[in-house]
Design a protein that fits this description.
By secondary structure, the protein is of the alpha/beta class. The protein folds into two domains: 227 residues, Response regulator (Rossmann fold, 3-Layer(aba) Sandwich); 167 residues, Response regulator (Rossmann fold, 3-Layer(aba) Sandwich), CATH 3.40.50.2300. It contains 13 helices and 17 strands. The longest helix has 20 residues.
């Protein structure tokens, strides 16, 4: 049995079969997901895959992409980059050779930068086999600033946008006087620390940075030495962009050494982190996201419950609303362009507006940075006011304490883009 097969989905199959029968004769539109599906961050890659699987299913169940000449279904193919840039570039060549015109990736800004450079060259060298890059999680700000590309569209808020949302909460914590900065030693982690320093200096110059550290990505197995430094520094809070196992292991180590400060995180809301820190995280762990399960509203709750019905295992409970908005934006662009041609679709993508599941967003043509709501959540016990849903069966969820509209979350861009 396929690991993502759910018997409850039989309810949808009858309605879907009539639509898919009409799609069978049309050539499908290939989406190539290039992601680390093995190694230390394999769980983050699989989480992304689950979200994309369901987003694609929703499109196909309603009849696919409606284009002149007939509807066409989306087909999602997965390629394991092992979180390595060279592996990702090899996968890119295989995907394009296999007929893919749309590349999806996110769980590494370093890999994303390599893919952008490769696609710029590929699309210039061979216009008959151009491809568009849809980025759902690589958030180094440079990717839509100095390294912006006509062929690259980012659907996640970049690190500076996320940091601004976190700081809107941190700056109001007047008891906070000392912080420790720790992150992964690559472009994204460096960007997080750079922006944390800048915004602390601007918004809270009274806060002292008592420690600052970058560590190897995905190679640290024991974070106890780091956690010990954090505790002995006297820091009242940690600011970190860590993700995947690098975050979970850091939080576990901090709990083990008895660190009692707050964690201001980019990704502290899933992949084992809430369960790892346990009760001691209630009221102390904050996470910024484009969406959280406890965002108020029926449309949001219905969306989340549909995801949990599709993927009922607690370990599969890591939902990325932005990936669903990304696929909806792609379909909208294709239907507006009346074509699946990547150049025409890229031009249409520059102007998409999506309003779905109670969320809205729009693509900024100047830099291809999707503008969407951001929320900051505070870890709390399930059942407390504002926390109807927990995460990963942990009995802990995140109560939304700050919401920013897409207009409030915008940041200026330095992009100078060559268009096609």
């Amino acid at each position: 049995m396929h690991p993502y097969f759910n018997p409850a989905r039989k309810l949808f199959l009858g309605a879907a079969l009539c639509c898919l029968a009409g799609l069978a004769s049309a050539q499908p539109i290939q989406l190539a997901m290039i992601e680390g599906l093995s190694g230390p961050f394999g769980n983050t890659g699989e989480a992304a895959y689950r979200n994309l699987v369901m987003a694609v299913e929703r499109v196909n169940q309603r009849g696919g992409v409606h284009l002149p000449g007939g509807a066409r279904e989306l087909v999602l193919k997965r390629y394991d980059s092992k979180s390595q840039t060279e592996e990702a570039l090899t996968s890119l060549r295989a995907a394009i050779d296999g007929g893919a015109n749309y590349v999806l990736q996110g769980n590494s800004s370093a890999v994303a930068a390599g893919l952008i450079d490769a696609l710029n060259k590929q699309n210039e060298r061979d216009p008959s086999r151009r491809a568009v890059f849809l980025n759902y999680a690589a958030v180094d700000p440079a990717l839509t600033n100095e390294r912006c590309s006509f062929w690259h569209f980012r659907f996640d808020a970049h690190a500076d946008m996320r940091m601004t949302a976190l700081m809107s909460v941190l700056k109001q914590d007047h008891a906070l006087k000392s912080v420790y900065l720790i992150g992964q030693d690559y472009s994204f982690g460096q960007a997080v620390q750079r922006e944390a320093r800048a915004q602390l200096g601007s918004l809270r110059p009274d806060i002292q940075i008592v420690g600052e550290e970058l560590h190897p990505v995905g190679r640290v197995k024991d974070f106890l030495p780091y956690a010990t430094k954090i505790k002995t520094s006297g820091a009242q809070a940690v600011i970190t962009g860590n993700w995947g196992n690098d975050l979970t292991l850091l939080i576990k180590a901090a709990r083990d050494v008895g660190f009692e400060g707050k964690f201001y995180t980019f990704y502290g809301n899933a992949l084992g982190a809430p369960a790892a820190i346990g009760m001691s995280g209630v009221g102390r762990v904050l996470a910024v996201a484009d969406w959280l399960p406890n965002v108020p509203g029926k449309a949001s709750a219905d969306f989340y419950q549909a995801f949990r019905a599709r993927f009922p295992q607690p370990s599969d409970d890591y939902v990325h609303m932005r990936m669903f908005l990304m696929i909806e934006a792609l379909v909208q662009a294709m239907e507006q362009a009346k074509s699946a041609d990547p150049t025409l679709v890229a031009r249409a993508l520059e102007h998409v507006k999506v309003n779905k599941f109670g969320q809205r967003g729009f693509m900024r043509a100047a830099d291809h940075q999707f503008q969407q709501s951001l929320v900051v959540g505070l870890m709390d016990n399930q059942g407390e006011p504002g926390v109807p849903f927990d995460i990963e069966g942990s009995s802990y969820g995140f109560r939304v304490i700050k919401s920013l509209t897409p207009e409030m979350a915008q940041q200026p861009t330095r992009c100078v883009m060559q268009r096609f």
